[in-house]
Write a structure and sequence with these properties.
This protein is α/β, with parallel strands linked by helices and 532 residues long. The protein has helices at 3-18, 24-52, 67-83, 94-101, 111-123, 131-134, 152-167, 180-191, 193-196, 207-217, 236-243, 258-270, 334-344, 365-377, 433-448, 469-474, 496-524, and strands at 102-103, 106-107, 198-199, 202-203, 223-229, 247-254, 278-281, 296-301, 345-356, 380-385, 398-404, 412-417, 423-425, 428-430, 457-460, 464-468.
Length: 532
């Protein structure tokens, strides 16, 4: 059994303990919060043991009742705050609390001490550079919630069970490919999608889709100065980009949902992103952008589909929207997010975002914005159609827009129809590794090709097509993929002679059947149900 399978089994066991007591999205937050606490503890223990190794000591061997022991502890704390950004004493570690909670198989009361530990983690960062990154990280872990149990003892029993199950999971901290928090998040949403997959308009980006977006914005690059996600959710998309290059300098993101914002900061820390290298803000991106003075080399996003926004006429004075002549409608902020991302994109950068198919062809203000992006700015590089039913919580078909300010082929746009390339898993559609590779290989072929100005051609029949901006203009800037990628399947020609022969055979069979029925009716002395 793989580490991921073991984790999923434990998560299922934990969820079964919590189901019935609270909604899926609530117990998700408890589980992920405790996963993070366990991670911080394991990281702290390994770090402290490494520091103490030259003195032939371990973190648990420090005698805190002596002056030398206190000096060792203070030295470990000073270094941990600098390097890790936080501090935990030996008695505050996850494994230590589990041992205390499970005394001879019976849950001992640790809730008060556990609450203090979570507060101490945050307070250990007070007055340091990492303070903002740890502030209120555990606010969703309400250990006094009546949903955990009517009495403190009932709540304590549940919490101890949860911690015991997680204590059995090896996080394999040395394996850089592991994504414990991301795997847990996706598993919980997949199993309990009714509540956890959609919360306050939030849609979790499946790892396969994140992979496509990440690969698209890193084509031809080994290092990125910065990556930005204006609707960063749990941060999985930002971190996925990092897997595609050797190094990412800084990570920037904004998330309006406080719970998901906390998850994003946890995710950064769990992926060894030093607190000085990420800047995640908890605010509404369209109304109160927090990084408006910065430009980013890679921009990725899965904005909430067709979210409502103010669309206030005063927004026409905002540099992000003023040049387009129209605002995105109040009921659909999709293009408002695109405009915001374009504003934040560096001149040498690339952006890729997932949007509902409607952005490709809707008219009105959206049509005006779409035309400006294509005709005036000339930033649109590729349009990629994805399978329907690929996101948890919605079956809506989606697409990916790829934009660059400095394009390799300024007179062309690539269209890819990947809508029929997937594997069905239960009720969801999933992109397979080959499906992802096909999209990326096609995009690379387009980038690396040498096309004449008026060149238009299918790269692959019924899959991809290189069009000219002139052709898009002739289509009134409608980007609906079937206008460019011919997916029409001809029906098999009908053999009329064969059909006629089949009808003759059927007619003969019916005559024989009628004759048999008529004979039975005569024997019974009743009228036949039809005329002979």
């Amino acid at each position: 059994m793989t580490q991921k399978q073991k984790l999923n089994q434990k998560l299922w066991d934990i969820a079964n303990n919590l189901r019935g007591k609270m909604g899926a999205d609530e117990f998700r937050d408890y589980i992920l919060g405790f996963i993070f606490y366990k991670y911080l503890s394991e990281k702290m223990l390994r770090y402290a043991n490494k520091i103490l190794a030259p003195d032939n000591m371990t973190y648990h061997s420090i005698n805190l009742n002596t002056k030398p022991g206190q000096q060792y502890l203070e030295a470990v704390k000073e270094n941990a705050i600098e390097d890790l950004g936080y501090f935990l004493e030996p008695g505050e570690l996850f494994s230590t609390m589990v041992m205390r909670g499970n005394g001879n198989g019976k849950a001992k009361f640790i809730l008060d001490d556990l609450q203090k530990v979570l507060i101490d983690i945050e307070q250990s960062t007070m007055g340091t550079e990492s303070e903002e990154d740890f502030e209120n990280l555990f606010e969703d872990l309400d250990l006094d919630s009546s949903k955990l149990g009517k009495t403190p003892e009932d709540r304590n029993e549940i919490i101890v069970k949860v911690m015991e199950k997680l204590d059995e999971v090896d996080f394999e901290l040395d394996n850089p490919e592991n994504d414990v928090l991301g795997d847990a998040y996706e598993y919980l949403i997949g199993q309990f999608a009714s509540g956890a997959g959609k919360k306050a308009g939030e849609f979790y980006t499946p790892q396969e889709v994140s992979s496509v977006l990440a690969k698209l914005v890193t084509v031809g690059k080994e290092r990125l100065k910065s990556v930005y996600d204006p609707t960063c959710g749990s941060g999985s998309l930002l971190l996925r980009v990092a897997r595609e290059v050797n190094e990412v300098g800084e990570y920037f993101g904004q998330e309006s949902n406080p719970t998901t914002y906390n998850l994003c900061r946890m995710n950064m820390i769990m992926h060894d992103v030093h607190y000085s290298r990420f800047d995640i803000k908890n605010e509404d991106t369209l109304e109160r952008p927090q990084h408006i003075d910065k430009k980013f080399e890679a921009v990725v996003a899965n904005p909430p589909f067709s979210a409502k926004w103010s669309s206030d006429p005063l927004k026409m004075n905002d540099d992000r929207f003023s040049a387009y002549g129209k605002l995105a409608p109040k009921s659909r902020a999709d293009f408002a997010f695109v405009q915001h991302m374009i504003h934040q994109l560096d001149d040498n950068g690339a952006m890729a975002c997932v949007l509902p198919h409607g952005v490709l062809f809707r008219s009105g203000g959206e049509g005006t914005i779409r035309e400006h992006i294509i005709q005036e700015l000339n930033y649109l590089d590729a349009v990629i159609g994805l399978p329907a039913n690929i996101f948890f919580g919605t079956s809506i078909p989606t697409c990916i827009l790829v934009l660059r300010k400095k394009r390799t082929h300024p007179e062309h746009v690539l269209f890819i129809d990947s809508s029929e390339h997937y594997k069905k898993v239960s009720t969801q559609h999933k992109l397979r590794p080959d499906d992802i590779s096909k999209i990326i290989d096609t995009y690379k072929e387009y980038l690396n090709g040498d096309w004449d100005k008026n060149y238009t051609e299918e790269l692959e029949e019924k899959y991809s097509y290189i069009t000219s901006r002139e052709e898009i203009a002739e289509n009134d800037y409608n980007l609906n993929i079937p206008r460019y990628v011919d997916t029409f399947e001809e029906e098999e020609p009908v053999d009329l002679e064969a059909v006629a022969n089949e009808l003759k055979v059927l007619d003969n069979d019916m005559e024989k059947t009628d004759e048999t029925i008529a004979n039975y009716c005569n024997e019974l002395g009743i009228e036949t149900p039809f005329s002979i």
